[in-house]
Design brief:
The protein has two helices and 41 strands. With 504 residues, it is mainly beta.
């Protein structure tokens, strides 16, 4: 009888060959792959790129579109981690490509990155500046070529200001509805009916839309579907204030005299602070402090975590203007005809500028200049440090609740004369205007090369660059850069090896 061990040897050898073949084939078939730390963001976004299944210890160039942005060296496993590149300031809204390519051959991988210059809440950001720093399509030269992209008709006036994020325009209507519209076409995606007019401007964060209604409720809706997640009932007859979302908290004022802080996930009240009259000013939230105005003539600074009063400053009239906070200074308007600059830490007045009538609109701040409209029919540009007037533009009709938006050297504002204006932010010269069918309370929003605004003629308008009646490609949300051919990409041999990418 033969030894059983002798019979098992051929089987073991064949098994070994089979496993070795599988391993060899697996290694041979492996192709490089990369992952990005984020899928979308504005120009200048930091993108961390990681890769695997490259050749060990080889140079890999990281491209944004066709521009070589970084050089890394893979480790002994053919991997690299967290190579740092930035989306270029000039990258237009739409799909772009990140490529990782071995320097000595054409082996690599590509992943898309969506550039967006979203405007997700009334202030643009929680600091209240109404400045979109990322806009790179519209500027002082190109804005003269704007035309109507689309309009959407609601059931009543549109005093709400639009929020724009991820290719969707969100806006309230005085017909009691909140609307979600396709940003490219104006087609309605969904609407949600509340129990009162929605004069409030929506805020969108983490896939949730927050908005207030004159039925004295704050609503949280699924931004994709419009389904209600929660609502919070505040006091007062109506609630026209626009919410500010910061650090997982919704801050909003009410005609019941209170400022509320609500948990953004659940709607639970975290705290409230009672002023001496109604609050329709939207809050600015900076460095743990909430700044807000009230009809009781005061500007308040509250602890963002507890609602405790830090200071208040008394003006000569109601403060419906929403504060903007920049470099330790609070800028805000008052019905007493003045624009104020207050020390953000103490509330001490730094300066004030007197216009010809009430200042109900909120200031925009950019490049050391405060831009604000007045009921006296003028738009003012003031030195942010001194309050000195740099220029004014006479519209000839009141600029009431429409607040200026500023981006890329252009100022946008609406007026009671039914026009939306684009002014040179440096000089105040008129660059462009468009006449709607009625007065404008809504504040313009500028995102992805498009200006959005509502009008009392029941419409929401979108304006973009036009050429021969067709929208320019660079202004169309979702425009796509051509996917680079790996063989056509050329490395930048002047690049030094990134230490971040090689030390893993």
């Amino acid at each position: 009888m033969s030894d059983p061990r002798e019979r098992s040897q051929p089987v073991s050898f064949l098994t070994f060959l089979f496993i070795a073949c599988l391993l060899f084939c697996g290694i041979a078939s492996a192709t490089p792959s990369i992952t990005l730390s984020k899928e979308s963001g504005p120009p200048t976004s930091l993108i961390l790129v990681s890769g695997r299944d490259f050749e060990p210890n080889v140079g890999v160039d990281i491209f944004f579109d066709t521009k070589d942005k970084a050089l890394v060296v893979t480790n002994g496993k053919g991997e690299f981690h967290d190579a740092r590149i930035y989306a270029p300031r000039s990258a237009h809204p739409g799909k772009h490509w990140v490529t990782a390519l071995e320097r000595n051959n054409d082996k690599g991988d590509q992943e898309p990155f969506l550039v967006q210059t979203n405007w997700s809440q009334f202030h643009f950001d929680a600091d209240g500046t109404r400045l979109n720093p990322y806009e790179n399509v519209l500027n002082r030269r190109t804005v003269k070529g704007m035309g109507l992209k689309w309009s959407y008709t609601t059931g009543l006036s549109v005093t709400s200001s639009p929020a724009v994020t991820n290719g969707v325009v969100y806006v309230g209507g005085d017909d009691d509805n909140v609307y979600a519209l396709n940003a490219s076409t104006g087609a309605k995606l969904w609407s949600y009916t509340t129990g009162g007019a929605v004069e409030s401007s929506p805020a969108v964060a983490n896939g949730v839309l927050y908005v207030a209604s004159d039925d004295h409720h704050v609503y949280a809706l699924n931004a994709d579907e419009g389904t209600k997640l929660w609502s919070y009932e505040a006091g007062g007859d109506n609630l026209p204030c626009s919410p500010t979302v910061a650090n997982g908290v919704v801050y909003i004022g009410s005609y019941d005299n209170d400022v509320y802080a609500l948990d953004a996930s659940t709607g639970a009240k975290l705290w409230s602070y009672t002023t001496g009259n109604g609050v329709i000013s939207s809050s600015a939230v900076v460095n743990g402090v909430v700044y807000v105005g009230s009809w009781d003539f005061n500007v308040y600074a509250l602890n963002a975590s507890t609602g405790a009063l830090l200071w208040s400053y008394t003006t000569g009239g109601p403060v419906t203007s929403s504060p903007a906070v920049v470099n330790g200074v609070v800028y805000v308007g008052s019905f007493d005809y003045n624009v104020y600059a207050l020390n953000a830490s103490t509330g001490a007045k730094l300066w004030s500028y007197t216009t010809g009538y009430q200042v109900a609109s909120s200031p925009a701040v950019a490049d050391g200049v405060v831009f604000v409209g007045s009921y006296d029919g003028n738009v003012y540009a003031l030195n942010a440090s001194t309050g000195a007037k740099l220029w004014s533009y006479a519209i000839g009709a009141p600029v009431y609740y429409s607040s200026a938006a500023v981006t890329n050297g252009v100022l946008y504002v609406g007026s009671f004369d039914g026009n939306v204006y684009a002014l040179n932010a440096n000089t105040g010269a008129l660059l462009w205007s468009y006449t709607t069918g009625n007065q404008i309370y809504s504040s313009p929003t500028v995102a992805n090369g498009v200006v959005y605004v509502g009008s009392d003629d029941y419409n929401i308008y979108a304006f973009s660059l036009t050429h021969g009646g067709a929208t320019r490609r660079v202004a169309r949300a979702g425009s796509t850069s051509k996917r680079p051919d790996l063989k056509a990409l050329r490395p930048d041999f002047s690049l030094k090896v990134s230490k971040v990418g090689s030390q893993h």
